[in-house]
Amino acid sequence: MIYDCAIIGGGPAGLNAALVLGRARRSVALIDNNRPRNAVTHASHGFITRDGATPAEFRRVAYEQVLRYPSVKHLQTEAVEVRKIESGFFEVVDASGYTIQARKLILATGVKEVFPEIDGFYPLYGKSLFNCPYCDGWELQDQPLVVVSESPTVYHTAKLLLNWSKNVVVCTHGKSSLSDEQKAHLQSKGVVVKEEPVTAFVGHNGRLEQIRFADGTELPRAGGFVMPRFVPAAPFGERLGCERMENGGLKTDAWGRTSIPGLYAAGDASYFMPSQVVFAAADGSRTAMGVNLDLTEEDFG
């Protein structure tokens, strides 16, 4: 069997693309390794009707709805290789060697975060340390917060955080990423700026209590945000020769088409930021419409 479309990635983008294509009566192979990036998150926020849903509940409901459409097949496996073959179709090979073919391919493989290497971070991540103020700022409102980032964008993140708490400390983790003017501006708003490297997050039962610096000092904090660097979660776009944007995402047009004919990208794999469930789901829907449009034109002749 040759599927109309294969989708690699079962996050919000891939799931919503499968839903739209299933409703368009297209045959779809949804390839999902069941390792969602947001699995550590206690709840997803900012998505109307889904605000506060756990990632597990979101996926349960999503699959229940997607698989109502008989033309959608869920392959719970790991895609390890993608090839474009002479027919112009795509072959996807999983870890066991099983191969499928599809006329079109959507990469909804997302991104992965690369965090600064700071002791004690991972036991607190998803509980009192996060990476997105829009996703988790409400739950930390009015608490003493920290934002740790080596990027100059920390200036804008710190300003943003003042919407949720007036007690904010900025840590540049040993980098001189803020200008003197920016530091003065933040300090005029009550934001403390510390440029010493952070050596440890100290806390218990998922709750941050202290930040420890390289000079041995500690600072009490109740929660905060550690800003990661984002990189592609899968190499398929690069291996197939897709054009990329400056931020590393796959370059697409208004319908999710990449520079490789028949290959599409949706969600974080394409735009990288902002990395939110609602954006990814919407982008999956848009890309699926692009796929169906192109298949329709081909079928119509």
UniProtKB/TrEMBL annotation:
Keywords: Flavoprotein, Oxidoreductase. The keyword Oxidoreductase applies. This is Pyridine nucleotide-disulfide oxidoreductase. One of its GO terms (molecular function) is oxidoreductase activity. Its cofactor is FAD. InterPro entries: FAD/NAD-bd_sf, FAD/NAD-binding_dom, Ferredoxin-NADP_redctase_2. Residues 3-284 form the FAD/NAD(P)-binding domain. Homodimer. It comes from Paenibacillus elgii. Pfam families: Pyr_redox_2.
